């Protein structure tokens, strides 16, 4: 049976992670009002989102205590996600000939 202090420690950790996710959401909204140049705003938003997604996966999905295979799959997923984001950002200004833009 679990000890009360053990459960309290987990609840405290979840509350800290929850507060961190709320702070990350506020930072995302605040960052949208800062003009860093279009590409850097996207990069900043993706960095904040990646940190928040990592916190959710590691703590709420309990991946922080999983075996090596989970980390390997997670690493490949992160690698391909980052690659797709770079392709998306690189293709953002690649318009076909005779395309009108603002």
Describe this structure as you would to a colleague.
With 102 residues, this protein is mainly alpha-helical. Helix content is 75%, strand content 0%. The protein has helices at 4-32, 38-60, 68-91. Helix 1 (4-32) packs antiparallel against helix 2 (38-60). The longest helix is centred in the N-terminal third of the chain and has 29 residues, at 4-32. The model has no long low-confidence stretch (mean pLDDT 86).
How many helices does DSSP assign?
Answer: 3
Task: Pick out the low-confidence regions.
Answer: none
- Rg over CA atoms: 19 Å
Classify the helix fraction into a percent range: over 70%
Beta-strand portion reads under 5%
Strand-helix topology:
Blueprint: H1 4-32, H2 38-60, H3 68-91
Helix pairs in contact: 1-2
């Amino acid at each position: 049976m679990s000890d009360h202090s053990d459960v309290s420690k987990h609840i405290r950790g979840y509350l800290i992670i929850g507060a961190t996710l709320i702070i990350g959401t506020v930072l995302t909204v605040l960052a949208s009002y800062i003009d860093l140049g279009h590409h850097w705003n996207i990069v900043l938003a993706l960095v904040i989102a990646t940190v928040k997604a990592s916190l959710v996966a590691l703590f709420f999905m309990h991946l922080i205590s999983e075996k090596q295979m989970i980390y390997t799959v997670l690493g490949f997923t992160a690698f391909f996600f980052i690659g797709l984001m770079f392709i998306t950002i690189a293709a953002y200004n690649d318009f076909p000939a005779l395309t009108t833009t603002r």
